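Sample entry (386 residues):
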Amino acid sequence: MRQPRCDMGELLILRPAKPKVSFVVPCYKLAHLLTECTHSILAQSYDNFEILIMDDCSPDNTPEVARSFRDPRVVHVRNNPNLGHLRNYNKGIEMARGDYIWLISADDRLRRNDALERYVSAMDRHPNAGFAFCPGMALQDGRETRLLDYSCIAGHDQVFKGHDLFRKLLTGNCILAAAGMVRRSCYDKIGMFPLDLPFSGDWYLWLMFSLHFDAVYLAAPMVNYRYHDMAMSNTLVQQDVTICSSNDLVLLWRIHDYVAQLGDRQLLLDCVDALGSHYGDHLACKEYRAGARAGLTLAEFEDSLAQRPNDGLRRRIRAKAYTMAADRFYWKEQYPEALEFYRRALQQAFWAPAIWAKYLLLRSGPLGNYLRETNIRLKHLIGHAR
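Predicted structure, serialized as tokens:
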């Protein structure tokens, strides 16, 4: 799966001895933020690293800013012509010489000077871990605004068994791209960013890495993820949100097929349920960034499933997808749509008591809704008590 080595003919300066860590910093039209990102790395207490500023033929003054750093650990690599963001990432990973590789976009930054020291120490102590990550703080207009809750998956430092993290990642990407430091052997085994997944490439890699490696989670938020109009994820959503939705589903089918080859039945069932959940989100019109939504019609859903010959697989995915769509419509108080999708789910899984309970409670009107919501609150209280 290893991709061909890239041409490094542009690299004309003498680089220091082999570093322990390589920071790959992609930069396109982000010269105004590059200094902040680079300084956050140079300020680290652990200093055995290199910084590869991957200038993707940026039309702004990125070269001038990159040359302003008077530190031999900083290397400016300018592409000509522009490669696109995924090829640029992959080129940087290929050029990296460190045992660990940290990909962080020029618009993000490290927020603690001991971040790298903590990462390296944790990874050195846990040789079975393929990568380390932490939660992040949102950054907007130069100010920290909030903790990114979805990136907080535990209350303390811990090592996740790969398959446990894999199951969590199936429900959605909880790892910030800027927060992940990856052992080189992960890329050697799995490969780099797939070029046909411009929106979901990082999610794909975290899933694949987790199938083969454990992961270190550091509970302190040590990175800033910046929200702004030029952010790559925003750009992709604004260009065509359907690319984002199709990427998610292509990714999950690819992971499903890979897990099928591994022969782990339980993990495969987890993949099937994740596919059903994501189809359901799209049947209920999933929301991406900036309020953009991507929907899926029933006909498009069936066309997608028709490519799979296994009738049992299709029925399980339909049941999960229709239930998820019904739940989404229920919480948006679109009760007729919710009833219709619960009915469709029961056609696929007639003996499913949980679906029957939701269907019958909804048909009972306000009393049924009250009973359902009370039951959910009680479950949350019991969960917190434990």
